[in-house]
Amino acid sequence: MLPMLLSGSLLAGCSVGPNFQPDRLKLPSGFTEAAEEKPATPEEIERTNKEMTEWWASFNDPILTKLVQDAIKGNYDLQEAGQRILAERALRDKAASAWYPQMDANAGGGDVRYSLNIDNWPLRPGNPANRPEASILTYGASATWEIDVFGRIRRGVEAHEREVEASVEGRRALLMALLSELANDYMVLRVTQLQIKIATDNIKVAKENLDLTNRLYLEGVGNTLQTAQAQAELDSQIAAREPLKTHVSQVSHALSVLVGKMPGEMEEELKVVKPLPRVPAFPATLPSVVIANRPDIRMAEKEYAVATAEVGVAVAELYPHFVIPLTFNPNASAMYQAFQVNGMSWQFLMMASLPLMHGGKYTATIRATQAAAEASRLHYRQTVLNGFKEVEDAMAAWHDDIEYQEKLEKASEDSALARDRARKLYAAGLIGFLDVLTAERTTLTAQNAEALSRLERLRDAVNLYTAIGAGWRGVALTNTTLPVSLETQNIWARAFQQ
């Protein structure tokens, strides 16, 4: 028996099936849409890599920074993802337990009665008087130990380990999406507040126009049509501001939920008007950094590794299984007999099993796992392409929206100047009130368009930092396990960590 155990131990280092080899795509030397920027220096790339840990700090907005910190601590979706990691780790440990002997203890006793209508010549062992009743006391232990000669258990543990790594990357991807949503909502909040300010300023102008038309009417220069038009314009401006207030409340509710608070808990705090955040500098990065940082790409690679390990598990089923069963089960009718040599009963074997004929079940499983592994590899490649597309799209939007915002700023200034001139000309009786209304509406449209262009510039920055995989490093997993631990269990659970 000992030589068999030794040979089994020597073979235990063998693992059948393919070993995981990361799939590598040929990456470009740089991003096409970054060509408008001057070539990044090593110092700029290093600066970007440092900023990627807490990219939100680049907006120079303390409130945004605090919201991010609160979201990392309090968001329930993120905490749920953390629990999934803990669950995957526990499943990995469960799979690894198959490497060790599995042992159970048993004990029992009682009275039994046998049938006398069964031919049991000469006499039933242990019952020389052939009485139908007997008392039995039994105790013992049973154990099994599978020798992992061909790596079936090892490949299973490897698959679970890769699942743990994939769940970690999944949590990181969720964290990035959370921070991106939070930052975008915060930008919407501030720009909507800016739009409310624009609307309030235009209401003030509309009131002044109404006062002007009333004064001219009293002086005999104006007419009731002009005063009615001025009043209608004022009413329209007041009405247009109300949906913006509603939007501020809704965005405030969304931000509260993202940080793990009740919807109305932060509304008053966030309604305080603050300046727009600063647009950070263009992040200097390389394609290789994106591959290393984007959690969705990293997770797709881990899932490919899981599928590869599962191929090994399927292949191992074609090979012999070696198991050592052990039972120790003494029986007696009296307590003093339970520990005598004659009452001993045990077996210690080396069992081997080899699949011979199963109608192609195992080979079909291998083909299925091979196809799943190839699908995972192709999914990894598509994830890389999608990731690079997001980066290129974000860079293109960044550069295009710079010129777009500059043009809208100029249009806003020009339309405001035209509105002021129109009011003066109307007061002098040189143009009609319709020209004033047209100039005011043009100004309002231009100012709102400029505000939205500022929002797009801020969102471009958020989207670009998210696209290059920034924001998840340095954020540790928070364990919020339910209060059920080994220490709270009975003495047997504390004595044997099963």
Describe the structure in your own words.
Belongs to the outer membrane factor (OMF) (TC 1.B.17) family. It comes from Acetobacter conturbans. This is Efflux transporter outer membrane subunit. It is a lipid-anchor. It is found in: Cell membrane. By secondary structure, this protein is α+β, with helices and mostly antiparallel strands. The protein has one domain (14-99, 151-319, 364-495): Up-down Bundle (Outer membrane efflux proteins (OEP)), CATH 1.20.1600. Helix content is 59%, strand content 9%. The protein has twelve helices and six strands. Helix 5 (152-218) packs antiparallel against helix 9. The two termini are 28 Å apart.
**Overall 3D form:** elongated
Number of helices: 12
As a percent range, the share of strand residues is 5-15%
The ordered string of helix (H) and strand (E) elements is HHHHEEHHHHHEEEEHHH
| Alpha carbon gap, first and last residue | 28 Å
| Average pLDDT taken over every residue | 84
What is the level 1 CATH name?
Answer: Mainly Alpha
Please state the structural category: alpha+beta
Number of strands: 6
Tell me the helix content. 55-70%
Radius of gyration (CA) equals 38 Å
Outline the biggest β-sheet.
Answer: 6 strands, antiparallel
- Unreliable runs, pLDDT <50, ≥5 residues? 1-12, 482-486
Name of the CATH architecture:
Up-down Bundle
CATH superfamily: Outer membrane efflux proteins (OEP)
CATH topology: Outer membrane efflux proteins (OEP)
Tally the structural domains: 1
